Structures are given as C-alpha cells and as structure tokens.
Design the sequence.
C-alpha cells in the first residue's frame, strides 16, 4: 500500500518542533520510529499534511539517573536501548519485562518509548485498509458521511447502537510504567508540564490521550521510591512472537523482610481503551502476607477491571479469563522474588 502525499519537517530542537506543531495544528503529526505511524498512513487511517520527524532532536534521547536514583527516559529512547540499560533491568524489571515483549527486534530497534506511549488505539474494524473500512461504511472512529443514515445503530460494529468507541489500548510499556507511578513530561510553545501517566489516558478509543496537537511528549520520569519493587509483565498474544497484546498484566510489589506487602500495583492493558490500574491491589494487599486466597481476590479484581469487547482476534471471555490467570501468576512470581527467590536484592 502506498503512502499518501505529505511534507516533512525535521527540527533539531524541542523549541523548533513545538513551534512547527503550533503553526500546523491538527494538520501535523509527530513521527518518531514510525513503526506505528507508517503502516497507519499506508492504510489511510489518517492523512496529515505534515509529518514532524523528531529523530534529529538529540535532547529527546537517552536515559539519565538523578541523584536519588530516579530515572528520566527521553521520549526518543528506543525500546532496544531501554532493554540494554542495566539500571532498567536491575531496578525496574517490570518495564524491562514489558518492553521485551513488544513486537520483534527490528521494531524495537526503531520504535521509541514516546511512540509506544502515544500509540493509536486498535480495533479489528479500524486497523484495516481504506477499501475494507469503506466497504463497511466506516465506524465511530472512521466516520463516513451519510453511510449510516438508514442504520445509525451500525456505526459501531463492536457495540451496535453505542456512542462510545471501544478500540483498545494495545501498548505494552504503559501498564508497566503505571505500576512504577511514572510521570510524563510534555512540551509546547506555552512551556513544559508534567502529568501522572494515569491521567494521560482518556479511556476513549477515539480521543485516547491528553496530548494537544501542538504538544510533544519529551520524557518519562520514574520515581526512585519504586526501585525497590519486584515486578513482572505477562502478555497474551496469538503467537508467542511479534504481536500486539490481546491482554496484558503488569505487577509490582514491595514486600518487607517479614513477608508483609508495603506497596502493590497491578495494571491491565489491551482490554479497555486505556491501560488501567486495578484499584483493589493497592487497597487490599498492603499490610498483608502472601496467601493464595488473597492473590485470587486480586486476580478476580483484575478480571472485573478488564472490559474487553470483540475488538481483537481473541474473544472477550478468553481475554478476561487470561487476565485473571496472568494476574495470579504475576503476583505469585513477584512475591517469590521478594522473598529471596530469583532476582532478589
Ligand atoms: C509488526 C508490529 C508489531 C508490533 N507489536 C507491538 C506490540 O507487541 N506491543 C506494542 O506496544 N507495540 C507494538 N507495535 C507498535 C510499535 O512498534 C511500538 O509501539 C513502538 O514503540 C512505537 O514507537 P515509534 O517510535 O515507532 O512510534 P511512531 O510510529 O513514530 O508513533 C506512534 C504514535 O505516537 C506519536 N508520537 C511518537 N512520538 C511522539 C512524541 N515524542 N510526542 C508526541 N507524540 C508522539 C505519533 O504521532 C503516533 O501517533 C508493533 C508494530 C508492528 C509494525
């Protein structure tokens, strides 16, 4: 499939980039590694007049460790660079385990953390060629004027009659970063701002992230206090190879020497239009020792947090059940590591 026509701007600084974004507004689109943007352009999911290629902005690259041990990861840092960083593997293992599951080596060499956090949401009925979508008359996310005048209930093929788009969040790093209480740094011509990652996602398949068209994601910050947590990411996909998640669960735990949980976070992805924290994990695990019943309760809470519909190759029933199974396995794994098992301090 060919690419549509567009112009390309290649700024060298963040200031230059945000100036171009504010001049072009919704007609511009940022491209970093391009592993998501390029196939989407080929399918004509959108046709920006200008691509803002940020790869020459060196200030967006690299991982720095602040005095207290907090991490700043530039938005342009590639997934391969994150995996190769000893500080990530040793202290923020949940992020390493999530990034290791993203696509294959080629995409990880090109794909960036910023691009991964800003991915388009995905749906069986949307991530298709223009011809395919047009022959179905479009959908909520890809409206075609007048196509549904006679049958407006068919506008969403997933939830007929619904007015909300259920295209799912299918990025793997976001749930891991949610369990690490990460914040993102955003720049625009109005200045810079920081936002907790949890507030970045709208849980709306059409309006997925809190990023204005004149804004650039510049970095991710992980606080030092989460470095002592044990964590792991588990992912369901059709092949155990290059594939977006059909369900994903990230877990981090901080357990003291007596085996009592001091902090816990569980986040699920690919089952809602946003990556979401499982509220009960923080509330019910803290102050408790391991027990199979407690772990099963949190696994059931993860099951309830995920609300998958038929947006992917998996059935909703199977994705939800796997959320429960993965949450149980991930919690048991993280608890085992904390109690002096593999990878312990
Ligand atoms: C075959 C295949 C399999 C894949 N499997 C997975 C998978 O298993 N898991 C997964 O998570 N992803 C997967 N991906 C998607 C992709 O490879 C990764 O998510 C990658 O990290 C995207 O980064 P990128 O730099 O290439 O993003 P791009 O394609 O450059 O951009 C993606 C989106 O982010 C925006 N963007 C990028 N950088 C910025 C920024 N700094 N500020 C503001 N907006 C920005 C772009 O405008 C675009 O909307 C797969 C892709 C392919 C082709």
Sequence:
């Amino acid at each position: 499939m060919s690419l549509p026509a567009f112009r390309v701007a290649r700024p060298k600084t963040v200031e230059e980039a945000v100036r171009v974004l504010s001049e072009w507004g919704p007609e511009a689109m940022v491209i970093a590694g391009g592993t998501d943007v390029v196939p989407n352009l080929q399918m004509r999911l959108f046709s920006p007049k200008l691509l803002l290629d940020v790869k020459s902005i060196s200030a967006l690259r690299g991982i720095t460790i602040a005095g207290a041990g907090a991490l700043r990861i530039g938005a342009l840092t590639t997934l391969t660079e994150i995996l190769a960083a000893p500080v990530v593997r040793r202290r923020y293992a949940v992020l390493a385990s999530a990034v290791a599951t993203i696509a294959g080596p080629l995409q990880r060499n090109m794909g960036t953390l910023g691009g991964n956090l800003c991915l388009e949401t995905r749906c069986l009925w949307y991530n298709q060629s223009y011809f395919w979508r047009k022959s179905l008359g479009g959908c909520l996310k890809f409206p075609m004027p007048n196509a549904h005048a006679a049958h407006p209930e068919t506008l969403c093929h997933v939830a007929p009659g619904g007015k909300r788009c259920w295209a799912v969040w299918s990025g793997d790093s976001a749930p891991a970063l949610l369990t690490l209480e990460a914040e993102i740094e955003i720049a625009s011509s109005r200045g810079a701002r920081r936002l907790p990652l949890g507030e970045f996602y709208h849980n709306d398949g059409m309006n997925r992230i809190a990023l204005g068209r004149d804004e650039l994601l510049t970095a991710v910050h992980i606080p030092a206090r989460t470095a002592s947590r044990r964590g792991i990411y588990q992912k369901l996909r059709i092949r155990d190879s290059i594939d977006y998640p059909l369900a994903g669960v990230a877990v981090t735990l901080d357990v003291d020497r007596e085996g009592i949980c001091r902090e816990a976070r569980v986040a699920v992805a690919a089952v809602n239009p946003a990556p979401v924290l499982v509220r009960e994990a923080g509330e019910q695990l803290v102050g408790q020792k391991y027990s199979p019943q407690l772990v099963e309760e949190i696994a059931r809470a993860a099951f309830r947090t995920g609300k998958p519909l038929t947006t992917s190759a998996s059935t909703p029933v199977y994705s939800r059940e796997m959320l429960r199974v993965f949450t149980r396995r991930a919690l048991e794994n993280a608890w085992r590591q904390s109690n002096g098992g593999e990878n312990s301090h």
